Amino acid sequence: MNKSTSQIIGRFAPSPSGRMHLGNAFSALIAWSSARSQGGRMVMRIEDLDPRTQDPQKARLVLDDLRWLGLDWDEGPYYQSERQNYYLDAIARLDNKGLTYPCFCTRSELHAASAPHASDGTYIYQGTCRHLNAQEIAEKSLQRPPAKRLVVPERSDPNGTFDYDDLGYGHQHEILADDCGDFLIRRSDGVIAYQLAVVVDDSLMGVNEVVRGHDLLASSARQSYIARLLGFEPPRYGHVPLLVAPDGRRLSKRDGDLDLGALRARGIHPEQVIGSLAHAIDLAEAGEELTATQFVERFSWEAIRMHVADVAVDDSFILGR
Ligand code: GLU
């Protein structure tokens, strides 16, 4: 797991919460194509931190769907559920820097005390628990177990400002104090927060290119911040448009007829799925079928940069043209 100096190392990082839908397939296809088109390697990591997703059968289905699409990897699968020690070690290092604190806020307290809301519907933590003294912490700990937050730099501190170029969405400018405030690195039920685990894993696995759905664009600054605190080089980021239902909702379990399990059961071929995804970013004609390898030959980030709006899909996306 040594970090290579120049080779691109990308990754798949699926959360096995159900069957993959077309949006997951699209992100995975682009992550793989970006790495492969640069002669890079791919790591497979199953993001099953949440005990509700720790179902080996679900993980197997995700791996099988990716293979069915023609996507492969060189290392893994790693399972986050087996990597607690790495995360706890990272948290201890942040504790030692004096940058963490216990947070006792309940969900309703957070929402009551957290206007203004960031544009993506998440809240900006106002630092309610940042200055509790030892006695207050002891008293509150008797009521409920705390979560843990990471302190972000003050608005005026340049260490809390992140400027970088996303491969898909171009220049990004984020100020952590304005965009999220002090954020969770461990939940009150003890589950490690996604933001922390993903940084630890990407760094230890040598990942230097992170490609994923646009919904995670705003996480990149938080993740670069954690990486820097832990002495890791942040990866470069490439975000890709989301596939949404015709009414603009994110695809979810409710759209089960568009998940890969359902499409496979209906006799759809992987080349039809990849051809349709390619057509959505003008890399294929309507109705054209493509293998993953043929897709890579046509792929460039320019195709994503020209198509950053969410893509609405329904049954006709695959079948009805
Ligand atoms: N596990 C996340 C998901 O499936 C992706 C995390 C990431 O790519 O950073 O949505």
How does this model look, in words?
The chain is α/β, with parallel strands linked by helices and 321 residues long. It has 2 domains: 9-77 and 205-319, HUPs (Rossmann fold); 86-194, Alpha-Beta Complex (Glutamyl-tRNA Synthetase, domain 3). It is built from 12 helices and 12 strands. It has helices at residues 22-37, 56-69, 84-96, 107-112, 134-143, 176-179, 194-204, 219-229, 260-265, 270-280, 292-298, 301-305, and strands spanning 9-12, 41-46, 75-79, 100-103, 147-150, 161-166, 170-175, 183-186, 209-213, 236-240, 243-244, 311-312. The strands form 5 sheets. The chain has a 3-stranded parallel beta sheet, with helices on one face. Helix 2 (56-69) links the parallel strand 2 (41-46) and strand 3. Helix 1 (22-37) crosses helix 11 (292-298). The chain is globular, with a radius of gyration of 20 Å. It starts with 8 loop residues before the first strand and ends in a 9-residue tail after the last strand. The model has no long low-confidence stretch (mean pLDDT 93). Glutamic acid binds at residues 13-15, 47, 198, 212, 216.
List the main descriptive attributes of the protein structure presented here.
Rossmann fold; 3-stranded antiparallel beta sheet; single chain; 3-stranded parallel beta sheet; 2 domains; globular; ligase; Rossmann-like_a/b/a_fold; binds glutamic acid; 12 strands; 12 helices; 321 residues; alpha/beta; Glutamyl-tRNA Synthetase, domain 3
